[in-house]
Amino acid sequence: MGNQQVLVLFLKALIAAKKSLGLYPPGSEMATAWVRRLHRSLDGFFQEGMTFPIRVGKDRFHWAGEELLTIEATLEAFRFDLEAHGIVEFSIDSSVEDWELEAFLDLLNQPAESFDSVAGASALLERRKVVHITVREPTGGAGERLEAAEARPEEDELDRLVQAILERTEEHFGALSYDRDRLLGWFHSLTDDGRVDVLYPAVQMLGTMAGGAGDRDVRLRTVTEAVLGLPDATLRPFLTNWLVPLAASDVVAFNLLAQATEDEMGRVARLVPADLLMSLTSELLEFPVEAGKRQRLLEAVTAALERQRQPGLEPGPAEGLAPDDPLFVELREEILAACHPDVLLERSADILLALLFRVDGDEYPAFAVDALEEIMGEALARGRLDLAVNVLKSLSTTTQLGTGWMRDHPRRYALFMRRMAGRTHVSLVAGILRRRAETQQMTLAADYLRAVGREGVEELSGVLAEEGDRRVRARLCQVLAAVGPSVIPALLPRLTDSRWYMVRNVVGILGKIGDESTFLSVVNVLDHAHPRVRLEAVRALGVIGGRMAVAPLIRCLTDADPAVRGAAVRALGALQDEEAVAALHGLVTQPGLGAPDDLTIRHEAINALAAIGTPQARRALSELAGRRVWFWNRVEKRIRDMAAEALRASQHAVAGALRDGDVG
């Protein structure tokens, strides 16, 4: 493999690891897996001749006397990112360790503006004791740093403009790679003056852009068709001098040539010298690409050469479909739809589940469970909570497994479920709820937690405690409540959390669940220092406790916070228990506490007595309605009038019930 190709592969591996590490919490299983993957790739690159240091130029990378122009948008974005972090050169030693790579990736994921000096990158690595990775910043004194700082706003504006231009350019060429006719016209315009040498850089750019897309084969096929649509006078030197010689060393050239059909490969064989194609078959054996695709290309080239030697074997011309043929358009749309990442994820999951449950054999397919774990992470990262839940439900079905597999499956299944309940995957579930508030998503999140069990609930409650957005906290609470009583053991320890809002949220969840087993735990929260926690506890007791809640609620009638007192009054009225009559009567008759809410609370207490409606409650209302008050005490006169009105309404209700025979 050429040195330039090794550098490109290394930089892309570094970019992929950087982006992936930014998606997962530090130290998580997925983050660690990406770091290890990068380390393994790095070992291979060293064996291929990778050398350091790599220097960052204005529009290129320099290393070992060579240079790589950053024509590709992803490489240019990474080059700019290094430059923004003040890194003009970096080196990685072959004895680097995983944690050092993770520290370097973490540095690159930090905002560039967080570095207060040009020496910030190297200083950060030094503080983290990284010795096998070194970076070099621009040279210059304080004046140069000051000048750079003063120029930063203009540079930022220019950078945004450049980034916008690059994104628009990538979007344009991405769309072009789906339109064969437009693409062929562009190729004609490039080569009109006989400059065939400019064609391959254009083809390589399009092929590289297609390589990272989910519909890679569709786009590569379009590029191949456009290239082979060129006239022989242009195509012959292009094939002879660029595409065929590079197919054994350049992935883009290899992929494009591998897209050729039998007829198209026959045309290639007619235009390219036979000895060049023979050399290609020898060199391909050493090219480290997918073995199956390499073998198919070797067979296609060999068959084309054989047909050249025996003209009678050449197939006759076949009539193709026009680009606007309805059948062709429909087939193209079906292929594009089938290549969508979500569709590929679903099919991959179905295949792996089929391998796990329906394949006859003595060996348990542990690889299928491992692959499903990766699919679960990808599905959650893409917001496909429905797919993740379906996989979990399918895995819980073990009736189809043979007796031999049953020895291995429970252990592998338990390990898989522990990972699904870990912070990495639960954080992805919370991320979906953070972006979307649909009822369907919250129902699916509750199904996910039921499937993974208590560990998952504990992790989500930890996410709830750390969440800063009130609306997101409300969604998480709703999901935990929807799971049902199974979340209670994981939530009860959170009632002693030092954060008052976390305790309030847990009490609210317990109230929505309404399980009597949590009654005493909620009663204990009535002594919490924060009034909003006590308020939530009063509301929950009205749902959980039934008659048991009357005594604790009566105690809350003397709470210092008027909102808590009001909630206790309403809860007692809803319970309609006669035991509360004396306390409610006393609340109405006691002297005002001077708070603005006092009159409202006393009015609610009168309504609660009317709601209880027992003879004792009506006597209490009668006593309140008949009280003598001074003519100048307008507040007490209003209280008396409220009691009289409530008494009349209660008496009318009793009389109506007697007429209807509802009261004995």
Portion in strands: under 5%
Strand neighbour order, sheet with most strands: 3-2-1-4-5
Derived from helix and strand composition plus strand pairing, the structural class reads mainly alpha
**Regions with little confidence, pLDDT below 50 for 5+ residues:** 141-155
What's the main sheet like? 5 strands, antiparallel
Q: What count of helical segments does DSSP give?
A: 33
Helix content: 55-70%
Q: For this entry, what is the oligomeric state of its chains?
A: single chain
Q: In angstroms, what separates the terminal alpha carbons?
A: 97 Å
Average pLDDT taken over every residue: 81
Q: Could you explain the architecture of this structure?
A:
- The protein is mainly α.
- Among the domains are: 3-139, no CATH class; 177-310 and 324-336.
- The protein has 33 helices and five strands.
- A five-stranded antiparallel β-sheet has the order 3-2-1-4-5.
- β2 and β3 form a beta hairpin.
- The protein is elongated.
Topology overview:
Elements: H1 3-21, H2 29-47, E1 54-56, E2 60-63, E3 66-69, H3 73-84, E4 89-92, H4 98-109, H5 120-127, E5 133-136, H6 142-176, H7 180-191, H8 199-211, H9 216-228, H10 232-246, H11 251-258, H12 262-271, H13 274-284, H14 291-309, H15 326-338, H16 341-358, H17 366-381, H18 385-395, H19 409-420, H20 423-435, H21 439-452, H22 454-466, H23 470-483, H24 488-491, H25 500-513, H26 519-524, H27 531-544, H28 550-555, H29 562-575, H30 581-589, H31 598-612, H32 615-625, H33 634-660
Antiparallel strand pairs: 1-2, 1-4, 2-3, 4-5
Helix pairs in contact: 1-2, 1-4, 2-4, 7-9, 8-9, 8-11, 10-11, 12-14, 13-14, 16-17, 17-18, 17-19, 17-20, 18-21, 20-22, 21-23, 22-23, 23-25, 25-27, 27-29, 29-31, 30-31, 30-32, 31-32, 31-33, 32-33
